[in-house]
Amino acid sequence: MRVFITGGSGLVGSAVVAELLGNGHAVVALARSDKSAATLEKAGAEPIRGDLTDIGTLRSAAGQSDGVIHLAFSNDFSSEATLTAGVAEESAALAALGEELVGSDRPLVTVSGTPYAEGRASTEADPFSTEGPVGGRANSVMAVLDLASRGVRSSAVRLPRTVHNEGKGGFAGMLAEIARGAGVAGYPGDGSQRWPAVHALDAAVLFRLALEQSPGGGVWHAVADEGDPVLDIVTVIGRRLGLPVAAVPAENFGPIGPIFATDQPSSSARTRESLGWKPEHPSLLQDLENLEP
């Protein structure tokens, strides 16, 4: 396939680009900067300059592709306003991509997060959560899935709170960066809350499988580790960075503090059975051993 991808130079996107190219697909990737374009070109992809606000560019690239994978998001969690703006920007971009593919039976794979399920691990059957700081993204994803009734082979890969590679990435990576600045490896609550995780290289395989195999309306979980206690995560971070470990108020983590404090394990049993996905790379706790002091 000739695959158009947004967010192709990020932690997850770069792994997806490599996975697609390594399995015989051609990749055209949106690039927001000259640096991103050079990175994508070096990886073997064809860069197209633009960002999620360039609706004409998105529609043109999608129209000339055999399939689309959407990964780009502003990832500015500094305030409620920036989160709201990022959600609105993504929503408009996804609507444009979807409309371009209507009636084509071509795949459109988008990204979301694993949902919260009280007292248990969430599954692929659980509904998207429209609550919380980034809950608005769920409405955009559900709109994409609804396009299955209009001739788009749409699907969603739900990523856990931490997608990691070489000790970097996701919420665990954010905890490490916050710890560096604060001088303490902090965690909200009592640290017993569990976070699911996946290695970026394993997540990339699932995006390819969804592109190739998923029926319209499919929802998949890229979860390798069902749920590591946050205290275990922070303990490794503190040891690797040579910092003390301590509980701190959830407010210290800004607008996503409530998410940090929530127990949110997740399962990928149906995904593994249906698509034959088999995570093979290091777990989060193993990968955090790569953190540089």
TrEMBL record:
Superkingdom as given in the UniProt entry: Bacteria
Pfam families hit by this protein: Epimerase (PF01370)
Residue ranges, annotated region (Disordered): 259-293
Cross-referenced Gene3D superfamilies: NAD(P)-binding Rossmann-like Domain
CDD domains for the chain: SDR_a7
Transmembrane segments: none
Matches recorded under InterPro entries: Epimerase_deHydtase, NAD(P)-bd_dom_sf, NAD(P)-dependent_oxidoreduct
Basic and acidic residues bias (residue ranges): 270-281
Residues covered by the NAD-dependent epimerase/dehydratase domain: 3-215
Name of the protein in its database record: SDR family oxidoreductase
Gene source species: Nocardia callitridis
